[in-house]
Each structure stands twice: as structure tokens, then as C-alpha cells.
Amino acid sequence: MSLRALFPRHRIDAEPADLGRALAACALPPRGAAGALEAWASPDGEVLATLSVRSGFDALLTALALPAGSEVLMSAWTIPDMARVVRAHGLVPVPLDCDAATLAPTAETVARAIGPRSRVLVIAQLFGARAPIEALAEPARRAGMLVVDDDAQGYSGPARLAGSACADVVFHSFGTLKTATALGGGLVRVRDRGVRARMRALMERWPEQATERYARKVATFMALAATRDPWRYRALERVAAGVGRDVDAVVTALTRGFAADTPEALLRALRQRPCEALCATLRRRLEASTTGERVARRREAGERMLTRLGGAVTVLGDAMEERTHWLFAVLVREPDRLVQTLRREGYDAARGTSTIAAVSAAPERPEQRAGWCESWRSAVVFLPVYPEVPEGERDRMAELVRAMEG
Ligand SMILES: Cc1ncc(COP(=O)(O)O)c(C=O)c1O
What is the pTM of this model? Predict the structure, then answer.
């Protein structure tokens, strides 16, 4: 069988020209870029610029100074570091189970999980869609808890930065895989003036991220941009296979954020301020008018895929509001077989286990277990569904999935 080109699993949402400008900012870092970014993101002064969402989350938990053993209720599907940060503060992460259609807990799940030590609720807006956070926040509000809208994955244009009106804190991330990425950076809206001032004071004492380090990251991704081309990406996959590595492992290693084995190392890595070059790059990315247009095309590609799959597999989050299909994930019976077949046929599908984790039940609250999220995580496969994959190729991918799983 002849070799086909391979469409990468994800397209970094930055053009080589954006990365070139980021490198130029590293060479001549502009002064006052962090302040200018914050002022641009929120004329009301509610937004803090951070190195990452995780850095902002760490600052928030420090500023709240909750008693040890206080509980943070969180959507069970999130990135593993969010629960690690909670633990590193001597707090207890309590998972909230979600379901396939909404990828969010129900208001009843939230209400049932609230105990006498519950203080914070974190709802993750997965894959860029919107969870009905107003209804979910209601029981937490009644219990006097702080509500966090974790929209790390959801940026789709400046309007989205406002976040849910009912949330006390809103997170947006601009890490490597995110929409309008600056290869790092977070924006954290904190409505309470006192909490915000404490977070700002804390972060001002943190060292600034080394500009050279940011420059190295930008340079790595400039080089990687060459593998966007499906034939070059196939070549990377072949080279990786030749040395006994899976392209999955290679891409994950190159795009991994903070490598930290212990809670102390994680906090050390998070406790840095973004460098001026990163802040200037992020502001430029947010100002770009192209984001809304690409998100619209991405949404269209995702919705078409949903129709083409015709119910042969469960598409995660298909009942959510404002789907923007930042990622396109399906639940399948034979994930390994599907991934292998799709890769052979030219589509770099990936197992979900490399991206999402289910927050495990805490020993302090063993009954609060996210059964659905735990048992289905291993059945998740991400499909490369984005506008730069030609429509005919996406339709062919849908046919392959239907043939195997329908
Ligand atoms: C749901 C969710 N929360 C938080 C984060 C952390 O964002 P950052 O990489 O900016 O720390 C991510 C990153 O992927 C995420 O997906």
C-alpha cells in the first residue's frame, strides 16, 4: 500500500510571522508590556496577566489562604496539574462527574458534592464549548463558595474574556495548543478587589520568566511549523518510527509545558511572572482580527464532522452551547485500532489519555468518585478536525470512523 500524507493532530494557532514577531520582541523586549496587556484585556482593571493559568490558580489559592483540608470541587476532566496545584496547597480536590453530551457536572452533582469544608468550585469549559455555568454555580453560591469559570480552552475572541457574569474568577490560557496562542501566558479575571490586590502583590514578588527561555521555545515552534505540512509530518512520523518512537510521544515531549515531578518543583516552575516579550506577543495575538474568522471556520468544520459521523460514535460535548470545536473528541469501542487505522490512512488521531485525566476521588471524600469520567477516559480519541484539513479529507475520515465503529 502506498504511503499517504499525514494530517497533524492539531494545528498550532500561530503563523510563522507571529512567531517571528515574538522572536523580535525577545531581542528587544518592550517596556511596560504586562501593564499594557492587562489594560487592553480589561479597561475595568479586573484582569491579571500571568505566566499560565496554573500560575494564576496557584496565586489565587495562596491569596485565599483557605484552612488546610478545605475542598475544591472541580470538573473531573481537566489537566492533571490543576488537581496537583490544589493538593500542593494542602487542599482537597473533589471530582465532579460529567457526562458525554455536556462534559459538565449537573447542578445536582454539584449540590450533592458540597460538604461542610467545600470552599471553591472550578468548572472547566471543555473543548471551547460553554457549560451552563449559571445553573451549576447556584448551589455553590448558596453555600458561600467561590466560583471559578475555567475557560482555559475556550478563547474565541476578545468578547469571551468577559467570562460568565456569575463567576468570581475567570481563566483564559494562551499556552501552546490554545487558540491565539502566544506559546504561554494566561489572563485571569478576578472580580473581588481585595483578592486581586493580594494576588498582584504575591506575583510582584515572583521572578520574571527568563526571556531567553521564552525565545528558545518560540524558536522550537518555528522549527516545528515546518512539520505542519502533511507530507513533512509523515516524514517526522517515519523518522520517529525508525528510532522506535511513536510520533505521539515525540509531539507530546516537544509541546509539554512545565516538567515537574514533585509539588514543590511544580510550584517553583509556576511562580514566575511572564516576560515582557511574552506579554507583548500575547497582546498582539489578541488584537489580531483573524482569530474570530478562524474559530468560525473551525466551528463549521466540527459541525460538518458531527453531521457526517451521523451518530456512529458519540461526539463528546455535542449537546453543549456555543461549540467551537477547539478539539474534536469521540468515544469509541476500539481506540487503539481506530488510531492505528486513521494514522495509516493519513489522519493523526490521538488517544485522549495523553491529554486529559480524571481527577481521582480524594481519600478524604472517597464516596465522591467521578465514575463516568474515570471509566470512559480510555475510550476517547481526538480526531484532526480543523479547517486546514481539506473538507474532502475530513469527510473521508468520517467514513473511515463510521466503517470501523458504526
Ligand atoms: C481545563 C484546563 N484548565 C487549566 C489549564 C491550564 O492552562 P495553562 O497551560 O495556561 O496553565 C488547561 C490547559 O490546557 C486546561 O485545559
Answer: 0.95
* The three cell numbers locating residue 333: 469501542
Band of the pLDDT at 139, cuts 50, 70, 90?
very high
Q: Which is the closest atom of ligand 1 to the Cα of 50?
A: 10
C-alpha triplet 356, 125, 322: angle, nearest 5°: 125
Looking at residue 404, its pLDDT comes to 94
Residue 170 in domain: no
Query: Is residue 317 one of the residues assigned to a domain?
Result: yes
| Consecutive H or E run containing 170 | strand 169-173
What is the average per-residue pLDDT within 361-377? 90
Place of cell 474570530: 292
Supply the range of the domain harboring residue 353.
290-405
| Domain count across the chain | 1
The response to whether residue 130 sits with its C-beta less than 6 Å from ligand 1 reads no
Quick: pLDDT tens for 143-171: 999 999 999 999 999 999 999 999 999 99
| Residues 302-353: tens digit of each pLDDT | 999 999 999 999 999 998 888 999 999 999 999 999 999 999 999 999 987 7
The secondary structure of 312-348 as a DSSP string is: SSEETTTT-BS---SSEEEE-S-HHHHHHHHHHHTB-
Q: Tell how far the Cα of 175 is from the centroid of ligand 1, in angstroms.
A: 8
Q: Do 120 and 73 meet the contact criterion of CB atoms below 8 Å apart?
A: yes
Task: Confirm whether 249 is domain-assigned.
Answer: no
CATH number for the domain harbouring residue 327: 3.90.1150.10
122 lines ligand 1 (CB under 6 A): no
Identify the three-state secondary structure at position 74.
strand
Residue 322 lies in a domain: yes
Nearest one of 303, 307, 298, 337 to 320, comparing CA atoms:
303
Q: Within 10 A of 108 (CB to CB), how many other CB atoms are there?
A: 10
Nearest atom (ligand 1) to Cα of 184: 10
